[in-house]
Design goal:
By secondary structure, the protein is of the alpha/beta class.
Length: 1011
């Protein structure tokens, strides 16, 4: 019979065993081996049945077994030791606390690719933030808390865990989905089927947040028509980091509202909007309640992990307006303390809602007809809607864009890899009209992964064994690894050099988990390393056979017909892994493009390969489901089913076996549509070599010692559209390159044996991957970068942009915007400094440049700065084809030459006369922008040189700025000048989207460049 009601009965632990409850409720056990081993010893069979979940385990242990353990002195000693270790972990100072106790270091230089440069200096001092609120729609902490769908959630989980290890005072905020993400199974013909299990919070490592009177904390949002959305708040303890999860499954809600948090990424537009309102608006209120009742410091910085939580900025504006601020001052205060991270390189990946839907739910309009009852009624609706408007070329009227709002509400923003930062600047360049994509103020912090979660215990034990036998060598290598991590200067293959080092100060303490767990890797013997790698491959083979048998039984097979599964995969065969979500751009089936070539690789008599594939398509994505079915049906073929398998229901538990067991990790997305992609990082930490398209993180950290790069074909006129007509050609070319690499390089390297019968060259690559790539891909490095480059500057800006200061900034911006149409570059003059060969100082060129200022409503420029020109050398002859000067144009002693020659190292003195439109000289920054130029005189790899005011305004209100420009590069070279707003509290000179530059017509007249 089926139960009419379900509830959980928790065990009553003997007094001596009560620390078990604390250990089970803090999910640090998911990355702490000693705690997991302790729970396994409670009941080994029950531990396996519970899937390694301590909460489920304790709910199934018999009273007799608990009494037996309470009487076991050795078990109690182990329990006390592990419990004491947790207490020390939770309360002791860690990297962040030691960092905060030291004097504030001098501001770190911004990376070379940071847009428009960073502020010349940190505007305000002070301690690092006392707390940071980190909002994300999903969190992948552990398989026992299934609140994730893919990479975004796993990244968020690793961010929290690494923040905990480092002692960073994060508060995580998300939603509790009662059905989580779906569980995947397959039909007999290979079609994906979805199942949504019901999750009981009492059976999860969660605690209901209660107020001082012991009552559940309740968050309430107003909805149109007088309705309300109620939510409880559950807390998960992620080491030192509290994770608050809002749950709408509350009795006071109507059925529609009760289902708001039913499942991750489900429902229609209104359902998603209510989820995001609860996450953003309700999340801020949950943080306030948690801090009030726990005594936790209030956050000074709010970090929005993608646009889903963007409404948090509106709620914080409401709070400040309730305290007396006007909208503009509140906006400035909120922006100062907000960080926004974008994770998608394609517009289609961004949540967009109909403006009318937003108007019905948010702001003072209350929807059509002014019915009232909407949330945030204190906010002017027109200002709210303007935050999400796509007011740029290609934008759509009538839509509210969550990522656009996230960028407008955050003073600091970043992408998640160097390449993704470039793509994001191009994608959002329309929000900063008049600026080139390279100047858009979106930086990049490359994602990382949490090593203690993803590294196989066997590799960790190998490290420990090596350390015991060679401590001195281990310590020396660890020091090298720390230096590698904190002074990293990889130069990606971009047209602008970039220093990618974490902005850490050598005086600060080293961070735990800031380096790879293989500091002693160079001391491992090849035999020991190969023995561990083969053991991990063997474990994966066993796991695959178990899961494959269960899948076939679900598909309707009889156990008697599954004897062939005992021969699936071989622990001595080169094993390739491919596991991820299944959108079209990730190209799950690229490997099937030429099936005959794939068959040759799989069935090669001397160098076979075997492939393990897993992944979920979104429930609404039939195209993705067809890709899954195509792969499954190929894998069902009796000719190949022992060499290629598809495992359904990909998740964290599977991944923790899959990454360590693979020799090669395959990734073949359409470049540049992979924002970062961290699965290859996790595989690399376990000794797998990457075989990938140069996209995401692999673009900046690829090295032939770490794996192979799949060549990328020209995208053609369709760009990177996976459905475009040119895509078939691109797939064919890249698939052929993949087969060639596997046949000619990967497989031969794996099977080649040295004198000792070991794959010496392969193991050398594995060792380099572990010891050199490993430190780069760690989430500890990532979180340190967030602290140094974003959190600390945001906290300091937040502290000084409060109350009257925020109102002052708002008024200043309004005044600058009003004056900007009259800001103009009137005159540019360049003189050559004398050299050893020149005893006289010659004037080279003067240009009258009536400037056309660019405002936020002006169309964007061509996207690349156009050179105004490098002055001609003295007595340079006029170009015969040069057009005559127009009437009234300035004249010089020598006619302008189209191509002039200037020696490397020469210095020009620039003098620029500017009309400021009533602004003071220190309210603008005048820059020279110089660099190499292409055939159209567009500047690339630009560097900026600030020019300083010389004297005060003249009678007409003009101000002259001057400064030296050294010609430090050979080849075609040019410069231009521009005027930008300047204020100590701007995070970037491009922040207002205002720039004044010479007109294109004048630039053509002055088109003198060094060739």
């Amino acid at each position: 019979m089926k139960a009419i009601r379900r509830f959980s009965v928790r065990p009553v632990l003997p007094a001596d065993l009560r620390p078990l409850s604390d250990l089970a409720r803090n999910v640090r056990w998911s990355w702490h081996p000693e705690t997991r081993e302790l729970f396994q010893s409670v009941d080994p069979e029950g531990w396996r049945a519970a899937g390694g979940d301590p909460v489920r385990l304790l709910g199934s242990v018999s009273a007799d077994r608990l009494a037996e353990l309470a009487a076991d002195r050795e078990f109690r000693h182990r329990l006390d030791t592990v419990a004491a270790d947790l207490r020390g972990y939770l309360t002791g100072p860690r990297w962040y606390q030691q960092r905060a106790a030291q004097p504030a270091p001098a501001p770190a230089n911004a990376p070379a690719d940071d847009p428009v440069g960073a502020p010349a200096e940190d505007p305000v001092g002070g301690a690092p933030p006392q707390a940071i609120a980190y909002f994300s729609p999903e969190f992948g902490i552990t398989a026992a808390l299934p609140q994730y769908s893919g990479g975004l959630g796993i990244l968020a989980g690793d961010h929290l865990k690494s923040a905990s290890d480092l002692g960073v005072p994060l508060i995580g905020v998300g939603l509790l989905y009662r059905h989580g993400y779906f569980r995947q199974s397959l039909s007999r013909d290979g079609w994906q089927q979805e199942h949504y299990p019901v999750l009981d919070p009492d059976e999860l490592p969660l605690t209901l947040l209660r107020d001082g009177a012991g009552q559940p904390v309740r968050i309430v949002l107003a909805l149109p028509g007088g309705r309300s959305l109620h939510a409880h708040v559950w807390r998960a303890d992620v080491g030192r980091v509290p994770l608050l999860l809002l749950d709408s499954d509350v009795a006071d809600n109507a059925p529609h509202e009760r289902d708001v948090t039913d499942r991750l990424y489900g429902g229609g537009s209104e359902h998603r909007l209510l989820q995001e309102m609860l996450l953003g608006i309700g999340g801020v209120r949950a943080v306030r309640a948690y801090c009030a009742h726990s005594g936790h410091p209030e956050p000074e910085v709010f970090h929005t992990n993608e646009g889903h939580a963007g409404f948090l900025g509106l709620e914080r504006i409401r709070e400040l307006m309730a305290a007396g601020a006007d909208f503009d001052a509140a906006l400035e205060s909120v922006r100062a303390g907000t960080v926004f991270t974008t994770h998608t390189p394609v517009p289609a990946g961004i949540d967009r809602f109909e403006r009318d839907l937003i108007a019905r739910h948010i702001g003072d309009g209350g929807g059509d007809g002014g019915s009232g009852g909407a949330e945030l009624a204190e906010l002017p609706l027109d200002r709210v809607l303007a935050l999400g408007d796509e007011t740029y070329p290609g934008g759509e009227d009538g839509l509210f864009n969550m990522a656009v709002m996230g960028l407008r509400l955050a003073q600091r923003a970043n992408g998640v890899s160097t390449l993704h930062g470039q793509v994001s600047r191009q994608m959002f360049a329309g929000l900063w009209p008049g600026f080139d994509a390279a100047d858009v103020p979106i930086t990049a912090i490359t994602n990382g992964v949490h090593a203690p979660t993803w590294v196989a215990p066997e590799l960790a034990r190998l490290t420990a064994d090596t350390a015991r036998t060679d401590t001195a060598r281990t310590d020396a290598t660890r020091a090298d690894a720390v230096r590698t991590d904190t002074t990293r200067t990889d130069t990606p293959r971009t047209d602008a050099a970039r220093t990618d080092a974490p902005r850490t100060d050598p005086r600060r303490p080293a961070a735990p988990y800031a380096t790879a767990p293989y500091a002693a890797g160079t001391a491992w013997s090849d035999a020991a390393l190969w023995r561990v790698r083969r053991a991990l491959r063997g474990q994966l083979v066993a796991e695959v056979r178990r899961r494959l048998a269960a899948s076939w039984l679900e598909r309707g097979a009889d156990r008697a017909e599954l004897g062939w599964i005992d021969g699936v995969l071989d622990p001595d065969v080169l094993t390739i892994g491919f596991a991820r979500r299944v959108p079209a751009y990730k190209r799950l089936t690229l490997m099937l493009h030429d099936r005959e070539r794939l068959l040759e690789l799989l069935l090669h008599p001397e160098r076979p390969v075997q492939i393990v594939v897993a992944g979920k398509a979104h429930p609404a994505d039939d195209g993705g489901k067809r890709l899954v079915q195509e792969l499954v049906q190929f894998a069902d073929d009796p000719r190949v089913r022992h060499r290629l398998v598809f495992l359904p229901d990909y998740g964290m538990a599977m991944a923790q076996r899959l990454y360590p067991g693979c020799d090669v990790w395959l990734n073949n997305p359409l470049r540049p549509l992979e924002a970062c992609g961290t699965s290859g990082m996790k595989a690399a930490l376990n000794g797998a070599l990457n075989l990938s398209v140069r996209d995401g993180w692999w673009d900046e950290w690829y090295d032939p010692d770490f794996g192979w790069s799949i060549p990328t074909a020209d995208a053609g006129p369709d760009g990177a559209d996976p459905t475009g007509p040119g895509q078939a050609r691109r797939d064919a070319l890249e698939a052929a390159a993949l087969y060639d690499l596997l046949a000619d390089q990967v497989a031969p390297r794996f099977y080649q044996r040295g004198a000792a019968g070991l794959p010496d060259r392969w193991l050398a690559m594995v060792r380099r991957t572990l010891t050199e790539l490993g430190p780069k891909v760690l989430a500890g490095r990532m979180v340190q970068e967030y602290v140094d480059r974003l959190y600390v500057p945001a906290a300091r800006a937040h502290r000084v942009t409060q109350g009257p200061a925020a109102a002052d900034v708002a008024r200043w911006k309004a005044r600058v915007r009003a004056a900007w149409p009259d800001v103009a570059v009137d005159h540019v003059k360049a003189d050559r400094e004398p050299t050893a060969e020149q005893s006289t100082h010659r004037q080279i060129k003067e240009v009258d440049a009536s400037s056309a200022p660019v405002t936020p409503n002006a169309p964007a420029t061509s996207g690349v700065p156009t050179a105004l020109g490098v002055p001609a050398a003295p007595h340079a002859p006029a170009t015969p084809d040069a057009p005559p000067a127009p009437p009234g144009a300035p004249t010089t002693e020598h006619a302008p030459a189209q191509h002039a020659t200037v020696e490397l190292g020469a210095t020009l003195t620039l003098r620029v006369r500017v009309s400021l439109g009533g602004l003071a000289p220190d309210e603008v920054e005048v820059q020279a922008v110089a660099g190499r130029v292409d055939e159209a005189d567009r500047i690339s790899a630009a560097r900026t040189v600030p020019l300083k005011p010389v004297g005060g305004p003249d009678l007409e209100g003009h101000v002259t700025y001057a400064g030296p420009l050294t010609l430090d590069r050979t080849g075609p070279y040019g410069y231009t000048v521009r005027v930008l707003p300047a204020h100590p509290l701007l995070a970037s000179p491009a922040e207002l989207g205002l720039v004044a530059a010479p007109t294109e017509h004048t630039a053509e007249e002055a088109g003198l460049v060094m060739r």
